[in-house]
Amino acid sequence: MQARLVISSIALVLLSPLLAACNEESQDPEAGDVIQARVDNQFKEGEEAAVALPTGRLLIHAAEPVDSAAADETRIRETVAAPSGAVLVPITWQYDPWASNRLAGFLATTDTPRVELVTDVETYRLSPPDPQRRESESFYVVVDGEAEERTLEIDFDGVTQTIDLTNGRIDKGEAESLYDIGEDRLRKKPCDDGPWFDSRTVAAEFTCQLVGPVLTPYAGGEWAPAGSTWLALTLETEMRIYGETNRLGGGARYVAKSVKVKAEIDDEKPAFELSTNDASDTCPVTVTATCGWSRHLIFEVPADDGEQGPLDVRVTYRLDRVTNWSGYDPPRRKKVTAADELKLWPTKSKR
């Protein structure tokens, strides 16, 4: 059953994106209607669940069903009573704003979840919460029967999680490993302390940074194939100035004009390579004479293997000479390559 909304026309401007349909005139509620609560967070005394979705964590509170809601509890400022043989199921939900963005670069999706409230009598489709909305939304769903059994089924791109609103328990299904991703995996870490260049003849202002890896069942707009999971990481490199010497007092300075990066695990290329779409993935940057490369790399790995690596990285720059001194006259244009093995520490976080 698709939920509809009972509202008055003067209250229309107050309604949140949750609303699934609108009636121009106030009328008695029917099963499947959604009535907006006047004050957000008012159901936080009920059962609580934190549901991990590819687009963020959804915090849910659900109180016991009631027969009616007073005028000061509804957005339409009218008392709402459930029809005979029905009850009102109170729900509050809200996206966690930090969790909504922490994996955004790996996802490559604009999908939204499909949400259904299931009781022992009927199923009611609800409009999903808006991930861009930072405030919580509270509402009542009119349902037939006593709603002694009531669950939310949240389907994201074909994978469903079930939340028992009577006790807060979650059946995570194929999304279970979304709950294993800890904050420590999403901090940026340096990876430029290895032997990238010959320090005897080269002085390169070069940096390398790594975010991850994380194991996630969803990335690149897809759930991982059966028996596999995604290993996702962000690799960022930047070349500012490349200097070299002939070790006889002469030297030259170059700037990078283009870059190519090859990154593999066990000789396998990423299944997806996604630009970070910001200034760090730009080469050259004329004003600062820098050359950046920044991508989200997503590899398919066995689901039962918690350790992978190393990540073999090969970076190739095309350089233009800007100055030289003391009789050293190298080519005006040249190509240089640097490589290193980046150890990917065990990827499974402790809960």
Work out the helicity level.
under 10%
Q: Tally the helices: what do you get?
A: 2
Low-confidence stretches: 7-25, 347-351
What shape does the CA trace take?
elongated
Overall residue-averaged pLDDT value: 87
* Number of domain units: 2
Number of strands: 23
Strand content: over 45%
**H-E string:** EEEEEEEHHEEEEEEEEEEEEEEEE
Cα-based radius of gyration, to the nearest Å: 28 Å
The biggest beta sheet is recorded as:
8 strands, antiparallel
Quaternary state, please?
A: single chain
Distance between the termini: 38 Å
Structural class: mainly beta
Describe this structure in words.
With 351 residues, the protein is an all-beta fold. It is built from two helices and 23 strands. It folds into two domains: 4-180, no CATH class; 183-342, no CATH class. It is 3% helix and 46% strand. The longest helix is centred in the first third of the chain and has 5 residues, at 97-101. 36% of the residues are buried.
Summarize the structure.
By secondary structure, the protein is mainly β. The chain has 2 helices and 23 strands. Strand 12 (159-164) and strand 13 (170-171) form a beta hairpin.
Task: Please give the structural blueprint.
Blueprint: E1 4-5, E2 33-36, E3 47-53, E4 56-62, E5 68-69, E6 80-81, E7 86-95, H1 97-101, H2 104-107, E8 114-119, E9 123-126, E10 137-144, E11 150-156, E12 159-164, E13 170-171, E14 188-190, E15 202-216, E16 218-219, E17 222-223, E18 228-245, E19 251-265, E20 272-275, E21 291-302, E22 311-325, E23 333-342
Parallel strand pairs: 1-2
Antiparallel strand pairs: 2-10, 3-4, 4-7, 5-6, 7-10, 8-9, 8-11, 11-12, 12-13, 14-15, 15-18, 16-17, 18-19, 18-21, 19-22, 20-21, 22-23
